[in-house]
Amino acid sequence: MKRLKIGEVARKADVGIETIRFYERRGLIPSPSRSPAGYRQYPEDVVRRLLFIKNAKELGFSLKEISELFSLRVKSKTSCGDIKKRAERKIADINERIKTLQRMRNALRKLSSQCKGTGPVGDCPILENFNSSS
Known about the structure:
By secondary structure, this protein is mainly alpha-helical. Helix content is 64%, strand content 6%. Strand 2 and strand 3 form a beta hairpin. Helix 1 packs across helix 3. The protein is elongated.
């Protein structure tokens, strides 16, 4: 099996070297063997693992959730339905975050509409609102 240096892995997975080291410290990728000169020597399949992490993160999964997905992948009793449930929970979480962001946007729009954009900063209704207990 071919071994890759950290720079080669980083290029193939399109991630930074520090990202690889971070995932290694977090246990998301196994610690590699070392060459006699001390260089990390990764198996080629670590690139697939990094792509999995990268793609899952882009869909909103946390590193903890990604670690759990890795664990589920190797458990013999895990079914596709188990993974689907996690995806549906993530969808519900994203929907909740969208609602929160929409409320924030609407509140900021209201505050922005109350501000004339002129006058001293001490009279700014946006900043005044931040001082209130509403």
